[in-house]
Queue: 2 jobs
Job 1
Amino acid sequence: MQKSASASSLGPGGIDLSQIFFKPTQNTSTPSPTNGHTKISVIGTGNVGMAIAQTILTQDLADELALVDAKPDKLRGEMLDLQHAAAFLPRTRILASTDYSATVGSDLCIVTAGARQIPGESRLNLLQRNVEMFQGIIPPLSRCSPDTILMIVSNPVDVLTYVAWKLSGFPSNRVIGSGTNLDSSRFRFLIADHLDVNAQDVQGVFKVEEVHNKWQELSKEAYIVGEHGDSSVALWSSISVGGVPVLSFLKKQQIPYEKEALEKIHKAVVESADEVISLKGYTSWAIGYSAANLARSILRDQRKIHPVSVLANGFYGIGDGDVFLSLPALLGRGGVLGVTNVHLTDEEAERLRDSARTISEVQSQLGL
Ligand SMILES: NC(=O)C1=CN([C@@H]2O[C@H](COP(=O)(O)OP(=O)(O)OC[C@H]3O[C@@H](n4cnc5c(N)ncnc54)[C@H](O)[C@@H]3O)[C@@H](O)[C@H]2O)C=CC1
Ligand SMILES: CC(=O)C(=O)O
């Protein structure tokens, strides 16, 4: 049965905006307001944690930033190095400890601790090591900030987001994986590079189900969805450049359309991390911006749609088992506020379900 529309949910033309989004399937809870004081904790101060921390500082996203790592000297060194930039940055209190008490009262906890891949290694290969690490991280972190939103970045990010959800006991709207927000940026960069346009003009025009069998058009960013990994899915059918659907754009520019060329771009997205890792040993800057971009939408209640890892069962025909993977999700102060019901082609939907099955199979070995 459809929910009746309240006056506040009616958009221009009397469209019931609340109907555009699916609600998360689990019970939800909204964190208390920040009372004007925003605290972010970053767990793991390696390459990724520090790229995220410095982006948070330069973008003025927190009043207080707590850093936690298992290595006390490295941790103190990183804290001091950031504190010494105080004269050049908006005022933020920075603290660091190996003890989770430093994270008490966080609005957002970003977890980056964990083993990372060596060149050629799959993200899924890291699973066992990082699950064990999460057993020591997530319970104290959630106890110190029972109302926080957890953002998982450590790999394999989709399975570890599921693990964090299980270990925290939080409602699913407050457990988010950074997912394919990063892959989608790589995707937009590669398409823009291919067409010699600005990455910000690479958009996605989606058909969104407003009510049963009534569709509205929603212009957003071009998305990769599914696993942050080899089985990710590029939503080619919706991609537009400067308002022109990409396939017609290619024809207009007399660039011969070959499905293979598009597949190559998606393959390049999937292989991006490995390329950077084999060149510099790790990836850091892009994930730093990606995580800060998500932190802004959440803490400033921007209600923006991002492709992030969320509890996905029930959406797009994804089966019964609990699985986290990236879908276009509406993010705000309550975490995941909804998942957009965008129109996928049959092939895209099938690939998304395959991606869910890949993650499910890995997860089933965990016994959580
Ligand atoms: N989701 C994504 O898009 C991305 C995910 N990653 C993942 O992020 C993770 C971190 O990568 P890097 O920062 O490059 O690795 P890193 O080795 O530079 O840093 C890991 C940090 O975790 C700390 N750590 C280890 N055990 C800990 C524990 N029990 N408690 C607290 N801290 C602990 C280490 O001391 C180290 O400082 C990896 O799993 C990597 O695959 C990396 C890039 C992008
Ligand atoms: C390492 C990783 O997951 C990435 O850069 O995409």
Job 2
Amino acid sequence: MQIGFIGAGNMSTAIIKGLIDSRFTSPEQVTLTKSTAERSKAQADQLGVAFSSNNTELVQQADIIILGVKPQKLPDVLNEIASEIKDSKKIVVSIAAGFNITKIQSFLGDEAKIVRVMPNMNIAIRRSVSGLSFSDNFSVEEKQLVSELFEQLGVTYELAEKDFVTFTAIAGCSPAFTAMYIDGLTRAAVKNGLPYELAQAITLEAVSGTLELMKDKTLSSWDLINQVSSPGGTTIEGVASLENDGFIPSLFHAVDATIKKDQEMSKE
Ligand SMILES: NC(=O)C1=CN([C@@H]2O[C@H](COP(=O)(O)OP(=O)(O)OC[C@H]3O[C@@H](n4cnc5c(N)ncnc54)[C@H](OP(=O)(O)O)[C@@H]3O)[C@@H](O)[C@H]2O)C=CC1
Ligand SMILES: O=C(O)[C@@H]1CCC=N1
């Protein structure tokens, strides 16, 4: 099975490294392209894989094509490869936000086998949580193949496409939101006199320990909030302050804004 990556930036590079590290794929099975043949060669040499001098040639050689370009570049790429995909059995994996299956098929034809995958940045350490939505023409074996591929890189969930945008917000985008939370706590400690590096190290340990505890003990958020909040103590003062300042509504707004943008992009 040959896997072709159109676009080899942050996400594709992490996927390629993860697939090779996990031994799911050998370097000989991977081909990539970037925006120019020179850049493709340099990246391929660095990763120990092959490159194609153009996207059409890459598609001709691949069984699975992973589209790893930014959404703004995707229409040109889809137009470029459409004739190679039409009437083929090739599987096209799109990791782009804002391109639903219908929109991708409007370029590649209604019969094209499209799977939308939304990984997240944690794929760089094979800790992605990836959402998968398939067009309705996949066989069970084909679905299994794509799922197995992304299982090498973390946890996967198969989703109805209507839920894909919500998944994108809480899984694809949330590393940025989580980093904002960590930054906020860190700088609040700096304001109170701790050096930045020390404050960030403490915050990261506290956050990662909290995640492990919640998973290990299968605690709900409110179980933990109640356990930490001593009656008449310090935590409940902070919890009340966050509630008063609209912490939860802010997150609702952020997720809604993310979903709205994805839906608008799919309509463009
Ligand atoms: N970043 C994230 O956290 C996540 C991103 N995504 C999605 O992943 C996709 C890629 O994002 P990311 O990896 O961050 O982006 P990058 O900008 O890091 O990578 C994009 C790649 O596309 C290449 N490229 C541009 N034009 C072409 C072309 N015509 N033919 C072939 N390759 C081309 C670029 O090459 P060059 O360097 O030569 O310009 C570059 O290697 C996006 O669609 C995004 O929505 C999904 C989940 C999470
Ligand atoms: O910001 C974006 O559009 C992409 C999709 C998920 C994470 N990054």
